[in-house]
Amino acid sequence: MPTAIAVTSDDLVLPAPDRHTPGAALLHPPGQHDLESALAGTSALLERHGHLVALVPPWLPRSTVQRLHTVRAILETDRIALLDIDLPPLGTALLARQLRQLSVCDFSPGIIASAARLLSHYIYAGALLGSVAKLDRVRVPVGLGAHARSWSPSAHFAVLAHPAPHLAKLGASGGGRSGRGGSHGAPHGSRPGPGGAAADALPGGPDFATHLTFARGQLASDWVAAELAPAWQVQGVMENPLPAASPAWWGTPKLVEFAAGIPDLSVLYQLVASVRRERCRWCGLELIGDRCGFCAAPLTAPPPSAATPASTGRSRP
Fold first, then answer.
1. CA 193 and chain centroid, separation
2. What's the confidence (pLDDT) of residue 200?
3. 275-286, pLDDT tens digit by residue?
């Protein structure tokens, strides 16, 4: 059986792109399952799949993160990878689907776990927002002018949180329901730049083939599908229900969240397969990158400190 890919809520499970992609395992938070049920469910997953890879974004409730670590500690297993992935909710769901796609390939569990960090660099995650008053908490710089304009009921902002922060105010009708209009997907009400599009309003998109997934909150707008998607030249667009964690992450329920990523399994496979494979110096699993996804050991041993002679040997990270 393929390595199990787990998330902590069912609204982070995007539809499979084909009949070969398995579903995601669901690790219920403490409010839904008690510890005994969590232990039994996780044990069953390990018995069936051998290894479990779970995404643990920093916006999860503290109690949920503690439950995940408690289960792994009680089971005393090194076959559970808890991956710290710093993406918005919809971007996290997209990464989970990519790992589900890769889980049916001939990659070992260690490669799949360490591939999460690599693939996250190729995910473009953002949102159309009605307010940026509370956006600073997600590490997107917001100037005083944008804060002031957030009080306007007609204000709308295009925000890219990953891979690089970007914020721009759209035209007055940029957040309303609209058709395509505007050269190269320029937001309505904005002044076209030299290329016909409003360069200051559209976040810079990926320079590789992607599909775009979006989810509506309490903001009535077609801007993401009608304007951003053509400007980014995506190969497909899919609407999905908004994850429950998204309003808190973006600081407002008035939003349309979006995430673009590589959809083609063959491309994902080549991307991961092209990276040099190493052997974890602690647990022995294969890995790519500079850190093991299961035991978190760095690829190379840290230099000995002045207080710790090199002859004392290695210890678990």
1. 31
2. 52
3. 999 999 889 999
